[in-house]
Design brief:
With 358 residues, the chain is α+β, with helices and mostly antiparallel strands. Helix content is 19%, strand content 23%. It is built from seven helices and 16 strands. It has a six-stranded mixed β-sheet. Strands 11-12-13 form a three-stranded antiparallel β-sheet. α1 packs across α5 and α6 crosses α7. It is globular and about 70 Å long. The protein starts with a helix and ends in a 36-residue tail after the last strand.
């Protein structure tokens, strides 16, 4: 009688594993149906499990350059990579997202190398602070037995993300770590969205389903820009409180809701490697540098704005803006963001592609 019992136990173990993997499949990543782009820019919260340096976080998540991590968290560029952040601090992690089969997960990275005494649970819960679950790591890495991983094995960590527009608008999807005591309405107000949008995106039928320490898909509104469709960084999506380096690191663009949700770009001031230098970014026929403003008659003013990076060149334009209070617009016809005069400027030749291909 012992053999049938062992056989039954083994059969039940296999069934249990299949259901576990199926459950992981259903909850893997965020909903994502956009197949028109290969990757998109996403963010996720990472709560530090212990006192950690920026360099360690950069290495763990395979972020190409420290300044990408700094920009995502609106930190100064001169901060040291050895700067310690205390345990439980939260950093936004920028990464490229890819959509497959209706699901969005990080595009084949980060990868984690298994250390002695590691388990999938330890890696998911303690190293990566529960941004993923161990069955999800098991699933994407095709691991038959979660208890059998090898020292030195490289594991793809599938961070949840999405590239979908939300309610007809381009957004940056942000994996927000839900804090104890949070409410759906409070999170919606904090991030300039609606309760119904959050419920729909996250497959919830009631606000009471919100759980502390879970990762919530939050669509971040982005600043409007004049980046043209032929630019290598189009669409340049930058959410409030973050910035992005682009145009071969020669331009830094920042989004601040206080600036009427208009993307503010300026020369990065960085020195490029291998002796390369960034050109002066002046709007054609003017002495106005990228990001600078000049006053005009009445409520008008002109700004030199970034319009893209194409053919190895930085392009800029003069844009007419109004500073009049709403309802008291004394601008001349043709001012504002809808009616604008473009004048492209050609910068010096630059190498490489824009920074967004992280």
């Amino acid at each position: 009688m012992g053999f049938p019992i062992l056989t039954l136990s083994f059969f039940l173990l296999i069934i249990s594993s299949l259901f576990s993997l199926q459950s992981a499949q259903q909850t893997l990543g965020f909903r994502c149906t956009n197949t028109s782009t290969s990757t998109c820019y996403s963010l996720i919260d990472y709560q530090l499990p212990n006192t950690t340096t920026l360099s360690s976080v950069q290495t763990l998540f395979e972020i190409k350059n420290l300044r990408i991590l700094l920009a995502a968290n609106d930190l100064p560029t001169n901060i040291s990579q050895n700067q310690n952040f205390p345990a439980s601090s939260i950093l936004k992690i920028p990464f490229p997202c890819s959509c497959r089969n209706g699901t969005g997960i990080s595009n084949r990275r980060p990868n984690y190398v298994v250390l002695p005494n590691d388990t999938l649970f330890h890696i998911a819960a303690e190293v990566f602070s529960r941004v993923v679950t161990f069955p999800q790591i098991q699933l994407v890495n095709n691991i038959p037995n979660a208890d059998l991983i090898m020292v030195g094995q490289r594991l793809w960590i599938p961070l949840p993300c999405s590239c979908d527009d939300v309610e007809g608008q381009a957004v940056v999807h942000y994996g927000h770590l839900v804090q104890a005591g949070s409410t759906v309405s409070g999170i919606a107000e904090q991030f300039n969205t609606t309760e119904s949008t959050l419920l729909n995106l996250n497959g919830m039928t009631s606000p009471s389903q919100l759980q502390a320490s879970s990762i919530l898909d939050v669509p971040l509104k982005v600043c409007t820009s004049m980046v043209t469709s032929n630019s290598t960084d189009y669409p340049l999506l930058v959410p409030n409180g973050t910035s992005i380096y682009t145009a071969n690191n020669c331009v830094r663009c920042k989004c601040n809701a206080a600036n009427n949700w208009i993307l503010q770009c300026e020369s990065s001031g960085l020195t490029l490697p291998r002796g390369q230098t960034c050109p002066l970014t002046l709007c054609e026929g003017t002495s106005v540098s990228l990001g600078n403003i000049t006053s005009g008659p009445g409520c008008n003013r002109s700004r030199c704005v970034y319009t893209g990076y194409a053919d190895g060149r930085i392009h800029t334009a003069i844009n007419q803006e109004s500073t009049c209070p709403e309802g008291n617009n004394n601008d001349t016809p043709g001012s504002g963001w809808k009616d604008r005069r473009l004048s492209f400027v050609v910068g010096a030749s630059l190498m490489a592609v824009h920074l967004l291909s992280m």
